[in-house]
Amino acid sequence: MQQDLDILPLLSEESYLKAYPEDRKCRAFLEFCREGDYKAIIDMLQDDEVDEDDEDEEMGDSDQSGKEEVGIDRMLRYQDPIGDMQSGLHAAVQAQSREVAWLLLLLASNYPLLEFPPEVFQEAESMGIMRGLTEDKVDIRSLKDANGKTAEDIANEIGGVWNGWTGNGRLAI
Question: Exposed/middle/buried for 108, CB within 10 Å: 0-12, 13-18, 19+?
């Protein structure tokens, strides 16, 4: 038995996942963002991509209009309903993980590709990922948490590793 362990957050999450089991992967994704584990995020996204391809083959021509935003796009833009509506970018900023922030900007924003450091592209290429079409999707930089804050607002509060990241459109639109 652990002394002074606050079990309310654990019970809240478990209760939420019982009611919304489809959010389990998205919540795991956010946890990886909070931990700064970009390799686990990439593995999860690649696994999800394989699952989507398998479903497409199995489904054939059946109408799936109700599931349009399920999968990678939904996961990348997921906001935590029991965690102040934080997105993965909010979580990465709070965790001070520039690697995860760059990954999310690459995959879920319209941030100009010419603004990315070459190392980001080299790492992405070595791991087999690249930006898909983002024009018609929500840009992760536009997401606000329950307090109306963008990831840039949180970066301004934290400072440190985020010096040079704010006021230039990198973390907010």
Answer: buried
pLDDT in tens, 79-132: 999 989 999 999 999 999 999 999 999 999 999 999 999 999 999 999 999 898
Say which amino acid occupies 125: E
Give the per-residue pLDDT at 169.
96
Tokens of 82: 């029991």
The overall longest dimension of the chain from CA atoms, in Å, is 55
CA–CA gap between residue 68 and residue 141 (Å, rounded): 21
For 6, counting Cβ atoms within 10 Å of its Cβ (0-12 exposed, 13-18 middle, 19+ buried), the class is exposed
The set of residues, in sequence order, having a beta carbon less than 8 Å from that of 145 and lying 6+ positions away, is 79, 84, 85, 86, 87, 90, 154
Question: What residue ranges do the domains of the chain occupy?
Answer: 8-58+67-162
**What fold characterizes domain 8-58+67-162?**
1.25.40
Cα–Cα distance measured from residue 98 to residue 113, given in angstroms and rounded to the nearest whole number:
16
